[in-house]
Amino acid sequence: MAARRLGAQTGSKIVDRLFVAVLFAAAIVFLAIIAGLAIELTRGSLLSLKTFGFRFLWTSEWNPITNIFGALPLIYGTIISSLIAIVLAGVFGIFAAIFLADFAPRALARPLSFIIELLAAVPSVVFGLWGLFVLAPAMRTVIDPALQKVFGFLPIFSGPSYGVGLLTAGVVLALMIVPTVTAFSRDVIATIPVDQREASMSLGATRWETMMKVVVPAARAGIFGAVILALGRALGETIATTMVIGNRPEIAVSLFAPSYTLASVIANEFTEATTDVYLSSLVELGLLLLIVSIIVNGAARMLMWSVFRGARSAR
Amino acid sequence: MRSYRSRRIAGAAGIFWSFACAFVAAASLLLILGYIVVKGGGALNWQFITQLPRPVGITGGGVANGILGSIITVGIATLIAAPIGVMTGLYLALFARGGFAESVRFLSDVLSGIPSIAIGLFAYSLLVQPFKHFSALSASFAFAVLMLPLLIRTSEEAVRSVPRTILEGALALGMTTFRSTLRIVLPVAWPSIMTGLLLSIARVAGETAPLLFTAFGSQFWELNPTNPMAELALQVFTYAISPYRDWQSQAWGGALLLVMAVFALNILARLLLKSRVSVLR
Question: Do A205 and A305 reside in the same domain of the chain?
């Protein structure tokens, strides 16, 4: 704000005005791109929206031959694989963040943080490759049979294992999002003022009690935000999921069963879609992903901002 | 009230558990990396990075056209995204007012979480469908959109980190806003802006999903960005899901190349950030 005043004071006003106008134009281009994204995906989905209406969301036949499309199995596969991922990555990521923020000696905190953050940069096709050739065979021969032996009475661990399926996809996704959960939760925990920790410890609480009863509750909203943010990544993850989920548009109770996600269907079928309504249905899946990710990310950012702001005003 | 002793033990157990979680997370990620290095290392050789792919059944060949294609595609994406991103960041840091700035920031954060496949669909309907053929240019556009949020955010923070007094000093000496931003603020912020640029390049260097229906892939050398182009990440994907052993082993080699490129960019970005600190002091 001060700069605007300053700009007005200086001599060559035209150059300055032009300069600010050019920068403003860049911001407008950016906003136009976002608007274009929403408009183009909506436009592409119109035919499918007209043909199937809201039935699209809760019918479970996905059939390119008869040109009937219902997204329910894909929505199911997307949600379940992401839930598995978020449970695993949530537990490991949050506790890892607690360790890195407050308990790790510096010599350990730095390399561990570095490794975890660097691995957030590994491309998803690399995770997919590892999932397909290393994890999937291990799931089929070792992990799934072991789960079945112990928890076989539960329907979610029943039936044959093919290696690729919901559980494998969930584990790969968990590995992909654990850096997100860890890094953001650690940052949120670090914003809680030292005073609060000191106050708690001066009342006789141990370091662990301070963390669990004072620091974590204060950072709760932000940690929740970090988890939601990671959930958003898992929901929209495409390539790695496509490689390990089995790509079958069916709803099965067993987590060993192959499934399909919104993003994988687009990845696999878009270039092969022959009819207009098929193509439009795939674009509608993209629109669905867009809407869900806007809601999820918007909520996550709000939650994390609330903690950062609170910490700032407390100082 | 539990005894002090039992509370101490519970505390130690809790800390150990949190350590175990951090260790398992880091170790399992390192394990994946180990696989990539070992299996990919076996597939890497001179031929692999200098030759074109060979048809199925003929051993040998490489991914040279994919490496070149990725460099071209990411290069064009950078040319599109860098000016828009850096200028938007500058605008947010120096000139934007409350509500407008907040909403651009918020939208940029939200855009950073939008699945790349949805952005691929956008690029398809904007740049592939009207021209009726796939092109590297459409992939570059999708990449540019993916790069923007990070670029905007890091550029804004870079400019913000420049002490306000420097700018005010320049203005007090009679420099125009334009000149003082260009000659005083930007040079100080430059290393951080470059860091953001490198990180955003790393963000898209291994991106695969949008390529499926934008760059599409090619078997040949291709230098014209308006044509379909081979891309390393896409080759890794196609080779990995192919039933041929030869191709699968090449997929590991390609994956290792991708990881090396992404890590190099990240580490370079961190080094730049360190150098910035020393410049400011």
Answer: yes
* CA–CA gap between residue A236 and residue A286 (Å, rounded): 9
Residue that finishes a domain, picked among A21, A36, A52: A52
- A228 and A79 share one domain: yes
Do A13 and A87 reside in the same domain of the chain? no
| Distant-in-sequence, close-in-space partners of A68: CB < 8 Å, separation ≥ 6 | A59, A61
Best mutation target among B17, B18, B116 (most A Cβ atoms within 10 Å) is B18
Query: In the numeric block, which tokens belong to residue B233?
Result: 């990440």
Residues A166 and A217 in one domain: yes
Predicted TM-score of the model (pTM)? 0.93
CB count within 10 Å of CB A311 equals 17
Provide CB contacts within 8 A for A114, sequence distance 6+.
none
> Cα(A205)–Cα(A203) distance, rounded to whole angstroms?
6
**Same domain? A164 vs A39:** no
- Coil, strand or helix at A62: strand
> For residues A22 and B87, what is the distance between their CA atoms, to the nearest angstrom?
8
Nearest Cβ partner for B213 among A22, A132, A271: A271
Say if residue A245 is in the same domain as residue A157.
yes
Same domain, A138 and A216: yes
Q: How far apart are CA A250 and CA A258, in angstroms?
A: 8
End-to-end CA distance of chain B: 53
* Interchain proximity A122–B33, CB inside 8 Å: yes
Q: How many CB atoms lie within 10 A of CB B267?
A: 14
Q: What residues of A are in contact with residue B262 (Cβ under 8 Å)?
A: 121-123
Per-residue pLDDT tens for B187-235?
Answer: 999 999 999 999 999 999 999 999 999 999 999 999 999 999 999 999 9
Q: What's the structural domain count of chain A?
A: 2
Domain limits at A37? 2-52
CA distance B109 to A197: 31
Interface membership of A81 toward B (CB under 8 Å): no
Are residues A233 and A92 part of one domain? Answer: yes
* Model confidence pLDDT, tens digit, residues A141-197: 999 999 999 998 999 998 889 999 999 999 999 999 999 999 999 999 999 999 999
With a CB-CB cutoff of 8 Å, which residues 111-140 of chain A face chain B? 112, 115-116, 118-119, 121-130, 132-134
